[in-house]
Design brief:
Number of strands: 6
CATH topology of the largest domain: hpI Integrase, Chain A
Largest sheet: 3 strands, antiparallel
Mean pLDDT: 82
CATH superfamily of the largest domain: Intergrase catalytic core
Strand order of the largest sheet: 1-2-3
Low-confidence stretches: none
Radius of gyration: 29 Å
Length: 350
Protein backbone atom coordinates (compact mmCIF):
# COMPACT_ATOMS: atom_id res chain seq x y z
CA UNK A 1 0.00 0.00 0.00
CA UNK A 2 1.03 3.66 -0.36
CA UNK A 3 1.68 6.23 2.36
CA UNK A 4 2.07 9.99 1.82
CA UNK A 5 4.00 12.20 4.23
CA UNK A 6 3.72 15.97 4.24
CA UNK A 7 7.07 17.69 4.83
CA UNK A 8 8.40 21.21 5.03
CA UNK A 9 11.37 22.03 2.79
CA UNK A 10 12.96 25.40 1.91
CA UNK A 11 9.95 27.34 3.14
CA UNK A 12 7.55 25.20 1.13
CA UNK A 13 5.68 21.92 1.35
CA UNK A 14 6.53 18.64 -0.36
CA UNK A 15 4.85 15.25 -0.31
CA UNK A 16 6.92 12.10 0.13
CA UNK A 17 5.27 8.96 -1.22
CA UNK A 18 6.26 5.43 -0.22
CA UNK A 19 4.78 2.34 -1.85
CA UNK A 20 5.22 -0.99 -0.07
CA UNK A 21 3.81 -4.21 -1.46
CA UNK A 22 4.53 -7.63 0.01
CA UNK A 23 7.14 -9.50 -1.99
CA UNK A 24 8.49 -6.37 -3.72
CA UNK A 25 11.17 -3.81 -2.82
CA UNK A 26 9.76 -0.45 -1.65
CA UNK A 27 9.51 2.49 -4.04
CA UNK A 28 9.45 6.18 -3.12
CA UNK A 29 9.30 9.62 -4.71
CA UNK A 30 8.76 13.27 -3.71
CA UNK A 31 6.33 15.76 -5.26
CA UNK A 32 5.36 19.39 -4.79
CA UNK A 33 1.65 18.73 -5.21
CA UNK A 34 -0.56 16.25 -3.38
CA UNK A 35 -2.44 15.41 -6.60
CA UNK A 36 0.81 14.38 -8.31
CA UNK A 37 1.76 12.30 -5.29
CA UNK A 38 -1.55 10.44 -5.30
CA UNK A 39 -1.43 9.84 -9.05
CA UNK A 40 2.13 8.48 -8.83
CA UNK A 41 1.18 6.22 -5.92
CA UNK A 42 -1.73 4.70 -7.85
CA UNK A 43 0.27 4.24 -11.06
CA UNK A 44 3.26 2.79 -9.22
CA UNK A 45 1.16 0.23 -7.32
CA UNK A 46 -0.35 -0.90 -10.61
CA UNK A 47 3.05 -1.08 -12.30
CA UNK A 48 4.62 -3.05 -9.43
CA UNK A 49 1.82 -5.60 -9.45
CA UNK A 50 2.22 -5.96 -13.22
CA UNK A 51 6.00 -6.34 -12.89
CA UNK A 52 6.75 -3.20 -14.90
CA UNK A 53 7.86 -0.64 -12.32
CA UNK A 54 11.41 -1.72 -11.47
CA UNK A 55 12.13 -2.48 -15.12
CA UNK A 56 11.08 1.06 -16.00
CA UNK A 57 13.03 2.56 -13.10
CA UNK A 58 16.27 0.84 -14.09
CA UNK A 59 15.75 1.84 -17.69
CA UNK A 60 15.78 5.44 -16.49
CA UNK A 61 19.09 5.07 -14.66
CA UNK A 62 21.25 4.04 -17.63
CA UNK A 63 21.76 5.51 -21.09
CA UNK A 64 22.13 3.57 -24.30
CA UNK A 65 25.72 4.79 -24.58
CA UNK A 66 26.55 3.20 -21.20
CA UNK A 67 25.01 -0.09 -22.27
CA UNK A 68 26.80 -0.13 -25.63
CA UNK A 69 30.15 0.70 -23.99
CA UNK A 70 29.72 -2.15 -21.51
CA UNK A 71 28.70 -4.55 -24.29
CA UNK A 72 31.80 -3.66 -26.34
CA UNK A 73 34.14 -3.86 -23.34
CA UNK A 74 32.82 -6.93 -21.50
CA UNK A 75 30.86 -9.11 -23.88
CA UNK A 76 32.07 -8.67 -27.45
CA UNK A 77 35.78 -9.57 -27.00
CA UNK A 78 35.01 -13.07 -25.69
CA UNK A 79 31.81 -13.69 -27.65
CA UNK A 80 31.40 -16.08 -30.58
CA UNK A 81 30.40 -13.24 -32.88
CA UNK A 82 32.58 -13.65 -35.98
CA UNK A 83 31.97 -10.26 -37.58
CA UNK A 84 33.15 -8.21 -34.62
CA UNK A 85 34.29 -5.32 -36.81
CA UNK A 86 30.81 -5.04 -38.33
CA UNK A 87 29.21 -5.20 -34.90
CA UNK A 88 31.41 -2.37 -33.65
CA UNK A 89 30.52 -0.30 -36.72
CA UNK A 90 26.79 -0.89 -36.19
CA UNK A 91 26.90 0.01 -32.50
CA UNK A 92 28.94 3.16 -33.11
CA UNK A 93 26.09 4.37 -35.28
CA UNK A 94 23.49 3.72 -32.57
CA UNK A 95 25.68 5.32 -29.92
CA UNK A 96 26.00 8.47 -32.00
CA UNK A 97 22.29 8.64 -32.83
CA UNK A 98 20.63 7.52 -29.58
CA UNK A 99 23.41 7.14 -27.03
CA UNK A 100 22.38 10.11 -24.87
CA UNK A 101 18.86 8.73 -24.28
CA UNK A 102 17.99 6.74 -21.15
CA UNK A 103 17.14 3.15 -22.06
CA UNK A 104 13.48 3.85 -21.28
CA UNK A 105 13.43 6.46 -24.05
CA UNK A 106 15.02 4.23 -26.70
CA UNK A 107 11.67 3.43 -28.25
CA UNK A 108 10.77 1.60 -31.47
CA UNK A 109 9.75 4.96 -32.96
CA UNK A 110 13.17 6.51 -32.27
CA UNK A 111 14.99 3.44 -33.59
CA UNK A 112 12.89 3.50 -36.76
CA UNK A 113 13.60 7.21 -37.22
CA UNK A 114 17.35 6.62 -36.86
CA UNK A 115 17.14 3.70 -39.28
CA UNK A 116 15.57 6.01 -41.85
CA UNK A 117 18.61 8.31 -41.54
CA UNK A 118 20.84 5.31 -42.07
CA UNK A 119 19.11 4.47 -45.34
CA UNK A 120 19.92 7.94 -46.64
CA UNK A 121 23.64 7.58 -45.92
CA UNK A 122 26.04 6.75 -48.75
CA UNK A 123 27.74 3.39 -48.37
CA UNK A 124 31.38 2.51 -49.01
CA UNK A 125 30.92 2.60 -52.80
CA UNK A 126 28.68 5.66 -52.84
CA UNK A 127 25.36 3.80 -53.07
CA UNK A 128 22.77 4.12 -50.32
CA UNK A 129 22.51 1.51 -47.59
CA UNK A 130 20.48 -1.51 -48.63
CA UNK A 131 17.43 -2.57 -46.57
CA UNK A 132 19.26 -5.80 -45.67
CA UNK A 133 22.13 -3.78 -44.21
CA UNK A 134 19.75 -1.60 -42.19
CA UNK A 135 18.11 -4.75 -40.82
CA UNK A 136 21.53 -5.95 -39.67
CA UNK A 137 22.09 -2.68 -37.82
CA UNK A 138 18.81 -3.13 -35.94
CA UNK A 139 19.68 -6.78 -35.24
CA UNK A 140 22.99 -5.65 -33.73
CA UNK A 141 21.19 -3.24 -31.40
CA UNK A 142 18.68 -5.94 -30.50
CA UNK A 143 21.57 -8.19 -29.47
CA UNK A 144 22.82 -5.53 -27.06
CA UNK A 145 19.46 -5.39 -25.26
CA UNK A 146 19.31 -9.18 -25.12
CA UNK A 147 22.74 -9.41 -23.50
CA UNK A 148 21.85 -6.54 -21.14
CA UNK A 149 19.03 -8.64 -19.74
CA UNK A 150 20.65 -12.08 -19.82
CA UNK A 151 24.26 -11.30 -18.89
CA UNK A 152 24.24 -7.91 -17.18
CA UNK A 153 21.05 -8.36 -15.17
CA UNK A 154 19.38 -5.24 -16.55
CA UNK A 155 15.62 -5.39 -16.07
CA UNK A 156 14.91 -3.78 -19.43
CA UNK A 157 12.82 -4.76 -22.40
CA UNK A 158 14.00 -4.98 -26.00
CA UNK A 159 12.49 -2.15 -28.09
CA UNK A 160 13.78 -3.74 -31.31
CA UNK A 161 11.27 -6.57 -30.93
CA UNK A 162 8.48 -4.19 -31.90
CA UNK A 163 10.10 -3.13 -35.16
CA UNK A 164 9.10 -4.63 -38.50
CA UNK A 165 12.02 -5.60 -40.71
CA UNK A 166 12.47 -3.78 -43.97
CA UNK A 167 11.57 -5.80 -47.05
CA UNK A 168 14.69 -7.27 -48.62
CA UNK A 169 15.13 -8.23 -52.27
CA UNK A 170 15.18 -11.90 -53.16
CA UNK A 171 18.50 -13.60 -52.74
CA UNK A 172 20.97 -13.26 -55.60
CA UNK A 173 21.40 -16.29 -57.88
CA UNK A 174 24.35 -15.89 -60.22
CA UNK A 175 26.11 -19.05 -61.32
CA UNK A 176 28.59 -19.92 -64.02
CA UNK A 177 27.61 -21.31 -67.39
CA UNK A 178 29.76 -24.14 -68.73
CA UNK A 179 31.60 -21.72 -71.01
CA UNK A 180 32.20 -19.25 -68.16
CA UNK A 181 33.43 -22.06 -65.92
CA UNK A 182 36.00 -23.20 -68.47
CA UNK A 183 37.18 -19.64 -69.13
CA UNK A 184 37.48 -18.78 -65.44
CA UNK A 185 39.38 -21.94 -64.54
CA UNK A 186 41.73 -21.38 -67.45
CA UNK A 187 42.55 -17.85 -66.33
CA UNK A 188 42.91 -18.84 -62.65
CA UNK A 189 45.33 -21.63 -63.58
CA UNK A 190 47.31 -19.23 -65.76
CA UNK A 191 47.64 -16.85 -62.79
CA UNK A 192 48.68 -19.35 -60.10
CA UNK A 193 48.27 -22.92 -58.95
CA UNK A 194 46.92 -21.68 -55.60
CA UNK A 195 44.11 -19.55 -57.10
CA UNK A 196 43.12 -22.43 -59.38
CA UNK A 197 42.93 -24.85 -56.43
CA UNK A 198 40.95 -22.39 -54.31
CA UNK A 199 38.33 -21.85 -57.03
CA UNK A 200 38.06 -25.60 -57.67
CA UNK A 201 37.53 -26.17 -53.92
CA UNK A 202 34.82 -23.51 -53.82
CA UNK A 203 33.02 -25.05 -56.80
CA UNK A 204 33.39 -28.60 -55.44
CA UNK A 205 32.25 -27.92 -51.87
CA UNK A 206 30.24 -24.68 -51.85
CA UNK A 207 32.53 -23.39 -49.10
CA UNK A 208 32.83 -19.67 -48.41
CA UNK A 209 35.98 -17.75 -49.25
CA UNK A 210 36.81 -17.18 -45.58
CA UNK A 211 36.37 -20.87 -44.80
CA UNK A 212 38.76 -21.94 -47.55
CA UNK A 213 41.39 -19.27 -46.91
CA UNK A 214 41.25 -19.95 -43.16
CA UNK A 215 41.81 -23.67 -43.68
CA UNK A 216 44.82 -25.19 -41.88
CA UNK A 217 46.59 -28.41 -42.81
CA UNK A 218 45.60 -29.92 -39.48
CA UNK A 219 41.98 -29.53 -40.60
CA UNK A 220 42.55 -31.55 -43.79
CA UNK A 221 42.40 -35.35 -43.80
CA UNK A 222 43.73 -36.32 -47.22
CA UNK A 223 43.53 -40.04 -46.47
CA UNK A 224 39.77 -39.89 -45.88
CA UNK A 225 39.20 -36.97 -48.25
CA UNK A 226 37.68 -34.60 -45.68
CA UNK A 227 38.25 -31.03 -44.55
CA UNK A 228 36.79 -29.42 -41.44
CA UNK A 229 35.81 -25.78 -41.10
CA UNK A 230 35.95 -24.66 -37.47
CA UNK A 231 35.07 -21.01 -38.06
CA UNK A 232 31.81 -20.85 -40.00
CA UNK A 233 29.21 -18.14 -40.42
CA UNK A 234 26.65 -19.86 -38.20
CA UNK A 235 29.26 -20.72 -35.57
CA UNK A 236 29.03 -24.49 -36.00
CA UNK A 237 31.86 -26.80 -37.07
CA UNK A 238 31.31 -28.37 -40.49
CA UNK A 239 33.08 -31.26 -42.22
CA UNK A 240 32.96 -31.41 -46.02
CA UNK A 241 34.15 -34.20 -48.37
CA UNK A 242 36.91 -33.33 -50.84
CA UNK A 243 36.04 -35.06 -54.10
CA UNK A 244 37.18 -35.38 -57.69
CA UNK A 245 39.75 -33.01 -59.10
CA UNK A 246 39.66 -30.90 -55.91
CA UNK A 247 41.19 -33.79 -53.97
CA UNK A 248 43.89 -34.30 -56.58
CA UNK A 249 44.78 -30.60 -56.69
CA UNK A 250 44.90 -30.31 -52.90
CA UNK A 251 47.15 -33.34 -52.64
CA UNK A 252 49.49 -31.86 -55.25
CA UNK A 253 49.38 -28.48 -53.51
CA UNK A 254 50.34 -30.11 -50.20
CA UNK A 255 53.57 -31.60 -51.53
CA UNK A 256 55.37 -28.30 -51.01
CA UNK A 257 54.45 -26.42 -47.83
CA UNK A 258 55.80 -23.32 -46.13
CA UNK A 259 57.23 -24.03 -42.70
CA UNK A 260 56.39 -20.62 -41.18
CA UNK A 261 52.63 -21.06 -41.40
CA UNK A 262 50.00 -23.74 -40.95
CA UNK A 263 47.56 -22.26 -43.47
CA UNK A 264 46.82 -24.35 -46.56
CA UNK A 265 46.88 -21.21 -48.68
CA UNK A 266 49.36 -18.87 -46.96
CA UNK A 267 49.90 -15.27 -47.91
CA UNK A 268 52.17 -12.50 -46.72
CA UNK A 269 53.93 -12.98 -43.37
CA UNK A 270 52.13 -16.24 -42.63
CA UNK A 271 48.66 -14.78 -42.95
CA UNK A 272 45.94 -16.30 -45.18
CA UNK A 273 46.28 -15.53 -48.87
CA UNK A 274 44.50 -12.43 -50.18
CA UNK A 275 42.81 -13.30 -53.46
CA UNK A 276 40.32 -10.46 -54.00
CA UNK A 277 42.24 -8.61 -56.70
CA UNK A 278 43.61 -11.67 -58.47
CA UNK A 279 40.14 -13.25 -58.64
CA UNK A 280 38.61 -10.05 -60.07
CA UNK A 281 41.46 -9.89 -62.61
CA UNK A 282 40.81 -13.49 -63.64
CA UNK A 283 37.11 -12.73 -64.16
CA UNK A 284 38.01 -9.71 -66.27
CA UNK A 285 40.39 -11.69 -68.47
CA UNK A 286 37.77 -14.43 -68.83
CA UNK A 287 35.21 -11.75 -69.82
CA UNK A 288 32.84 -12.76 -67.02
CA UNK A 289 30.72 -9.82 -65.84
CA UNK A 290 28.80 -9.34 -62.57
CA UNK A 291 30.46 -12.23 -60.80
CA UNK A 292 31.86 -12.35 -57.26
CA UNK A 293 33.75 -15.06 -55.41
CA UNK A 294 30.67 -15.80 -53.29
CA UNK A 295 28.83 -16.64 -56.52
CA UNK A 296 31.02 -19.76 -56.70
CA UNK A 297 29.03 -20.95 -53.69
CA UNK A 298 25.79 -20.23 -55.58
CA UNK A 299 27.21 -22.09 -58.55
CA UNK A 300 27.96 -25.18 -56.47
CA UNK A 301 24.47 -25.11 -54.95
CA UNK A 302 22.88 -24.67 -58.37
CA UNK A 303 24.84 -27.60 -59.80
CA UNK A 304 23.73 -29.81 -56.90
CA UNK A 305 20.11 -28.78 -57.49
CA UNK A 306 20.28 -29.36 -61.25
CA UNK A 307 21.80 -32.80 -60.67
CA UNK A 308 18.95 -34.02 -58.50
CA UNK A 309 19.91 -32.72 -55.07
CA UNK A 310 17.09 -31.78 -52.71
CA UNK A 311 16.90 -28.52 -50.76
CA UNK A 312 17.70 -30.49 -47.59
CA UNK A 313 20.84 -31.91 -49.22
CA UNK A 314 21.90 -28.46 -50.44
CA UNK A 315 21.42 -27.05 -46.93
CA UNK A 316 23.54 -29.85 -45.46
CA UNK A 317 26.38 -29.26 -47.93
CA UNK A 318 26.36 -25.47 -47.53
CA UNK A 319 25.96 -25.60 -43.76
CA UNK A 320 22.61 -23.80 -43.47
CA UNK A 321 20.61 -24.45 -40.31
CA UNK A 322 17.26 -23.93 -42.03
CA UNK A 323 15.89 -24.49 -45.52
CA UNK A 324 14.90 -20.85 -45.92
CA UNK A 325 18.26 -19.84 -47.40
CA UNK A 326 18.22 -22.60 -50.03
CA UNK A 327 14.68 -22.06 -51.29
CA UNK A 328 16.16 -19.80 -53.97
CA UNK A 329 17.43 -22.95 -55.68
CA UNK A 330 14.16 -24.85 -55.49
CA UNK A 331 13.17 -24.05 -59.08
CA UNK A 332 16.37 -25.74 -60.27
CA UNK A 333 15.29 -29.04 -58.71
CA UNK A 334 12.18 -29.20 -60.91
CA UNK A 335 13.53 -32.02 -63.05
CA UNK A 336 14.36 -34.13 -60.01
CA UNK A 337 10.96 -33.41 -58.44
CA UNK A 338 9.18 -34.29 -61.69
CA UNK A 339 11.04 -37.60 -61.83
CA UNK A 340 10.07 -38.47 -58.25
CA UNK A 341 6.39 -37.73 -58.94
CA UNK A 342 6.39 -39.61 -62.23
CA UNK A 343 7.88 -42.72 -60.56
CA UNK A 344 5.32 -42.50 -57.76
CA UNK A 345 2.41 -42.06 -60.18
CA UNK A 346 3.59 -44.90 -62.37
CA UNK A 347 3.87 -47.35 -59.47
CA UNK A 348 0.77 -46.36 -57.49
CA UNK A 349 -1.65 -45.11 -60.12
CA UNK A 350 -0.68 -47.29 -63.08
Amino acid sequence: MATIEKRKRDGGTVYRVKVRLRGHPPADATFDRITDAKRWAAETETAIRAGRYFERAEARQHTLAELIDRFLAEYLPTSRIRTKANTIQHLKFWRAELGSYPLADVTPARITEARAKLLERPGMKGARFAPATANKYVAGLSGVFTIARKNFGFAVGNPCCGITKLAEPRGRIRFLSDAERDALLRECKAHSEALHAIVILALSTGARKGEILGLRWQDVDMQRGLMTFHQTKNGERRTVPIVGIARLLLAEHGKVRRINTEFVFPGYKGRPLEIGRMFCAACTRAEIADFRFHDLRHTAASWIAMNGGTTAEIAEVLGHKTLQMVKRYSHLTEGHTRGVLERMASRKLG
